[in-house]
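This part of the workshop introduces the protein records we will be handling. Each record describes a single protein and holds just a pair of labelled lines. Instead of coordinates, the fold is spelled out as a row of discrete tokens. To make this concrete, we reproduce a full record directly below:
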Amino acid sequence: MRLAMQWLATTWGSPDTWELVEYGVRPPVAGEVTVRVRAAGVNPADAKHVAAARPGVDLPVAIGYEISGEVTAVGPDTRIGSGAVAVGDEVVAFRVSGGYATELTIPAEKAFTKPTTLTHPEAANLLLAGTTAAEMLWVTGAAPGETILLHGASGAVGVSVLQQAALRGIRVIGTASAARFDVVRRYGGIPVEYGPGLADRARHAAGTPIAASLDAVGTDEAVDVSLELTADRKRIVTIAAMGRAAAAGILAIAGSMRTSARFRDEIRGELVALAQNGDLEVPVARTFPLEEAPAALALLAEGHPGGKLALIPTA
């Protein structure tokens, strides 16, 4: 059994309480592969899900949901999500447990051939944001020719929404800070600055009824403006304002929800194919050594990292 390093939450709390420990990598059985991690994606959920005790979850908890790396072992008669696999193949994997590691064994169906168009840090950040964005467009029924409003357009999920919407011929009015307007424009959106007067600015920029609103920030402003500008509340979705969703009669989605998990699993292959074709980019702002995971989460918690973050194992 080979030894590897992995970040664990051994108590409920902030990333500062996590421990980087040595552990034995279990050899894969049928339906599993072992992956040497070249990059681990960094997401808000990594810290959120161990910040406090949750029903049905026991400590310690291995941290990290998505990785990019190289297959080092394959279980008997095993195929990955995208097909045949061999030792040495590069893969991307999503909805794994314990991705903040140097090596780990995972269910093979969670792995897909890594797009050659993406670096490992980019590939490690493709699927969590990408599947979330795809689900937001799906549940709101956004269709070609429509104009939609997107709150948080320059963030990780927002950038993926912009690209996927552009591919479908959906026009997007995207809220962002003025300093991030160039990002919104780069991916096909029409930027408007958030803050007082947002509803009027968005209405003017749209010049046509807003068919659906997608909230990736969770502020009261985002929800209020969405309600004001979108006629059908069932075409408003949030991934962050869970407390207001039920009362306001709008949709809320999360990877922990059964229907969301099923959709996100089903859409993985399509997103990997888009990336391979060069139709889906993943802007990465910065990488950190694996040992500096708490520092990466601290930067992410500030709210404006300027792109995705990735952890790079040195072992």
About this structure: The two ends are 16 Å apart (CA to CA). The chain has ten helices and 16 strands.
